[in-house]
């Protein structure tokens, strides 16, 4: 199975590849090859979002428009034709090789039909019943029920007649688009995320879900509506703020948000805060915004300050931190600049990619990359030694360090890069470092973590849904998988080794049980356990069990 950053390209062998000359016809033909065919041949599974749009199940910010045979990878700010797909997604390293590979006779061409964007019409059939969307948002995603109810009453969140959650895009009282969030968890068809997401047809380009609290003085920008609502659920004291969701990482969406903010308030925001994910894509996006898309206040002439509040931004994987500290101590240098370099260059990722907007490489992405284990330890030691050479009574010479690591780095990037390195170094020196086993990357994960630490999982896991007469029932147990992550499994209370279905979090498990009773909604888990004798009968008999539903409702009310 291909993963987001490790796709093994399937490039047909061409006998005369070294001498074959590219022609205009070859390039044109390469662009006409179906992206879907290329994706299938390279193990990239595309799932249907609805309408013309499909997304990669490993990374839903990569969208393919079937009608135009074009793709956009929002988190990486790349996109284009099938040739670009070969280079940016599959990993063919140059234009010539990509064109030659795409001229293979086994690949089919796509039928492309251009369609003009039509004005948005809200033709979604809203349901009078909001319970399915509410359960998904408040149980599976853990959002504050009071916030959801208020936004529903104001018309910002709806449920359609298929049970999907609709986040309505508002502009001066008009509906100009919508984000559609599925509520059925099916990882077999929707990939690891479990549910489908899409933007309603003809929604205003680069706009997004937004709402305001009080009289806005600041603008907060998030990747998704659920991220925005998760942040607000954790910070209910937030006042005088406009929240805006980009549905991805799109600078043009921020520009539209700024324009709309000014239209609504008559002023520029005092500051813009970015609550994007703490991952390489989020950092690349924020750095690009700071360095390429700044705004000035027309009245004062001052640059509007940008800031970010990424989750766990000062978190460092425990084993990685220990290695950095040990190697720095051996070289007699402080560990903080060494950790800052790893953070800025890779964001503590081992994907062998340059994970920063500046393009810095040569540090922890040296040679074969910052692989875990002994190779990482060796490279950390080498870099600690280099820092020792470049340190004098005035401290580490960051300019010299950058030049030694990456002589080809664009000079215009160096000062901004050095500023970021120094900022993380200072935060680590001031005790800001947070050793963690796993990094939390987004605000919904943080919300669930806070809830779980409050004891909700224990109340849920210890609850048995039983039919006393038959001495059977459902018990929720917690197990640790091979990666060391905790997962929940619903099992028969008297046969704990026989599972019915699984969930990634207590919130998701509560939603599954309340919504589906005893039935195995996760098709993968259903297939996994279908060979267990008696399970199918138990499911069919228990699906209508009212004690299970009543117990779950009681647990949900206790949390509200």
TrEMBL record:
Ranges of Low complexity compositional bias?
548-560
**InterPro entries, A to Z:** DNA_primase_Znf_CHC2, DUF3991
Q: Where is the composition biased (Polar residues)?
A: 538-547
Q: Where is this region: Disordered?
A: 538-560
Q: Where is the DUF3991 domain?
A: 136-212
Name assigned to this protein: DUF3991 domain-containing protein
